[in-house]
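This section describes the prediction task in plain terms. A model, or a person checking by hand, is given the sequence of a single protein chain and must write out its three-dimensional structure as a string of tokens. No templates, partner chains or ligands are provided. The sample shown here is typical of the held-out split.
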Amino acid sequence: MTPDEYLEFDKNSDVKNEYFDGEIFAMVGASLNHNRISFNLVRELGNTLKNTHCEGFAGDMRVKVQEIDKYTYPDIAVACGKIELEEKGLDTLLNPLVIIEILSDSTEAYDRGLKFEHYQLIESLQEYILVSQRSYSVVRYLRNPDNSWNYRRYTGMKDVLQIQSITCELPLSEIYHNVEFDC
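The expected answer:
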């Protein structure tokens, strides 16, 4: 399938679909913890970004990795300044500054591996954040000027996630508000 065929298919689909290398991948539903974490992040980021030049987008904003014609639906994306959208549609973001993925059993290896490799091709991307839904665990990758990435892990309820590119501090206690872990 070509990218244009994918975009037409996705526009008429009842579910979100990601696209890479001619293949389409249907996105499945999310767990209660996933939804709680997502809502908490959107609320906290929304409050932080209010009255700034940055905007946050929840899971329905498609992002394109232009260098490889890959389309994804990250859980949350943040862009600052002029929002760049693909000309083929009004719903494909080209310049995210921050991407946040909430990990699930079925996507964790992909989100940490190949998907991150692909996201690194997005020139505007400065931070990639992975949030566990099984324990207090958030990983932040921060791009250096030489295109290498720094790794930082936050694991305590009292830890505060630092998102440097948007000058944002998110306490894990807020990210995980009302989230219950299986023992």
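For orientation: Residues 32-49 form the longest helix (18 residues).
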